[in-house]
Amino acid sequence: MTDTLLDNIEALCILLVDDDPFMQRIIEKVLKDLGFENIKKANDGQEALEVLGQGNIDLLLTDIQMPNMNGLELMKTIRCGNSSVARDLRTIIITSFSNTETLGSSMALDVNGFLTKPFKPVTVMKTIMQAFAEEDSELRSEESYLEVKTDLSSLGEDEGASPETITEESPPEDNRNQCINIHQLQPGMRLNKDVKTEKGVLLLSAGFVLNKNTISRLFELGDVIAEHDYHVIEE
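Now predict its structure.
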């Protein structure tokens, strides 16, 4: 789809979800300057589900902190198959990499990308193109998404934790265990050690099986990840 994306920008329909009118205007202007003409808007997750029910949405671009239904809850509803759109709807999260307690849940919900301020046109276009380049078959089972935490108040309890206050267990003994860098990660590898941010917030738990999309997100989050060596088991 990326081969023809630039030729069909005006045909793509983007749903922009944000409860801040000022941010809505900024992001909408960037999108229109890039050539995206078909933009629908919603103020929270509940409104977004209503708009999605009208059909023909190609990309969801959503903030996380919103009233009524936050962005993580919206994603979870979609990934669990509890909305009127396909579970694999391409979704990009608007977030701050300093708001690290939400990143792990976003990754567990197989987000297709992150957008952070300032919204530079070249970065926005690159993120959108990458989202459309990712494979449809990368979704996990509906049951796995049900377990993802989306309550922002409970996620916020982890914020501010530091690596020094967290006891790190050694990876289980396994003769297939490898310690590799991010460029060596491959889909199907299983993490043998938790991946955490520099603040000690959990991103991915040991036992998590990597796919192409998750590896792409790890590249995006490189600046906030505590360790750049990954303990994995190649199945």
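The chain has nine helices and ten strands.
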